Amino acid sequence: MPNRRMRAAAVGLAAVAAILSVPASAASLPDDSGWLIRMMTCSAEGLPIEVYLPQPVVFSDHGMSAGQTVGGYYTLDLSSINKGKGLEPVRVTMSADKKFITVNQYTRGLPPTRIPVGGGTVEFDHRFAQHAKCGPFQAQDPNFGN
User: Fold this and answer.
1) Which residues partner with 103 through β-bridges?
2) Could you give the 3-state DSSP secondary structure of residue 59?
3) Which of 7, 105, 120, 134 could disulfide-pair with 42, CB 3.0 to 4.6 Å?
4) For every one of its 146 residues, what pLDDT tens digit does the chain have, with 9 covering 90 and above?
């Protein structure tokens, strides 16, 4: 019986050693569907806010379709007040006329925020993100960066 336990322990130790010895370069990268791109930046009282969407949606032939809802991420960078910067899942919806996007922070039960595609001042979180000044929703602005 002791030989059996020792063999099992040796096999287990060898498996752990093999897993730990795999170089980091052997780790696979996520496929393109897992990549995100920043689509909108805002600032509220000097605190940066960003909205990220999946690249396949952003770089499709038509961008976001009218009425389309996409899962993305929202960040409110509270690093300057020692609270960090987290990623919060959100649902982003393009309006039927493609003039507004709606950011729904559904995990926190906040009311959805409607933002003009060209940018504007909006209300996000009432504790830290009131009167947020947002730039244009980049994928929808054909002149962005020109």
Assistant:
1) 92, 113
2) coil
3) 134
4) 566 666 666 655 555 455 555 554 445 555 556 788 999 999 988 889 999 999 888 888 777 889 999 999 999 888 887 788 888 999 999 999 999 999 999 998 888 999 999 999 998 877 777 888 999 998 666 566 55
pTM: 0.72
Burial grade of 74 (CB within 10 A; 0-12, 13-18, 19 or more): buried
DSSP string, 66-87: TT-EEEEEEEEEEGGGTSEEEE
Strand 36-44 with 132-134, pairing: antiparallel
Task: Please state whether 53 falls in left (phi above 0), alpha (psi between -120 and 50) or beta.
Answer: beta
Joined together, the tokens standing for residue 70 give 């996409």
